Structure formats: structure tokens, C-alpha cells
Amino acid sequence: MREAEIRRLLVANLLCAVSIVLAAVVPAFFLDGFSVLGTHLTWLCICSVCVATLNIILHLVLKPSQSPKRSSFAQKISRFLKCCIYFFMSCILFHAIIVLYGAPLIESVTETFLFAVLLSTFTTLQCLCLLGPNIQAWIRVYSKNG
Fold first, then answer.
1. Cβ-contact 109, 44 below 8 angstroms
2. Phi-psi domain of 110 (left: phi exceeds 0; alpha: psi -120 through 50; beta: other)
3. Where exactly are the transmembrane stretches of this chain (predicted)?
4. Complete DSSP assignment for the chain
């Protein structure tokens, strides 16, 4: 990787960290009785939205993977819908993994699923922004020899 790409990646990750801190601090000024521990469901939603919004904005601004060929509007819509489906599937997969690691299946479904959404936002959304719904690229990145 070039030095400029490494710097942009560092700045993007620092901005994600700052958005998490802001998601914990700023809502206390607007919501009565807000605390990360007391209203954890609200915080999980706010944090997921902040990180997702930041990732999408950074992707649109930095444009890390420009495709040389032009795509039509229908192809862009199809790609967007595939990305949404992959994101939802990753949420379901993380939810299943969290339950297998001991989270209550029936008593805390909302908390567990929102935590799965947060994990998907941190992992899958960044990969979807960079790689898109290209399964072969995902296999290359996550395989041993990739």
C-alpha cells in the first residue's frame, strides 16, 4: 500500500473512533436520562447509525475503488440491493454466533440483534463499501493466500 492510502485508512479509522465517542456523549444533551448503560438499546442504535453514516460518507468522499467501466443506473440499484441483502445476512449470522456464544435466545432478542447490527456495521459495512457485493473479492481478501 502506498503511504497516502495508509494515511487515509488511519484517518478513516480515527474518525470512526471519534464517532463512537460522540455517539456516547452527544445524545446526553438531547435526550433526557440518556446514558450508555441505562439506555443501552438507544445507544446501540445511535452508535450503529453514526458509524454507518460515517463509513458511507467516507466511501463517497474518498472513492477508494473506482471502477474503470461505467455502470448504468439499474446496475447501481442492483448493486445497492445486493449490498443491503449481504448486510442483513451478516446481521443474522452475527446474531446466531452471539447466541451460540451464550446470549439469551428468547429473553433479549432485541439487545442481541442490535449488538449484531453494531458488529456488522463495524465489519461488513466497511467491506461492502470497499469491495461491493463481489463474492470472489471477499474470498480473496479473507482466504489464506489472499
1. no
2. alpha
3. 9-29, 41-62, 83-106, 112-131
4. --HHHHHHHHHHHHHHHHHHHHHHHTHHHHSTT--TTTTHHHHHHHHHHHHHHHHHHHHHHH--S--SS---HHHHHHHHHHHHHHHHHHHHHHHHHHHHTT--SSTTHHHHHHHHHHHHHHHHHHHHHHHTT-HHHHHHHHSTT-
Nearest to 41 by CA among 125, 118, 134: 118
pLDDT tens digits, one per residue of 19-69: 888 888 888 888 888 777 777 788 788 888 888 888 888 877 776 555 556
Instruction: Locate 26 and state its grid cell.
Output: 452527544
Cβ atoms of 11 and 23 closer than 8 Å: no
For residue 141, the one-letter residue type is V
Q: Looking up cell 428468547, which residue turns up?
A: 106
Vertex 87 angle, CA 82 and 93, to 5°: 125
> Are 110 and 41 within 8 A, CB to CB?
yes
CA pair distance 19, 21, nearest whole angstrom: 5
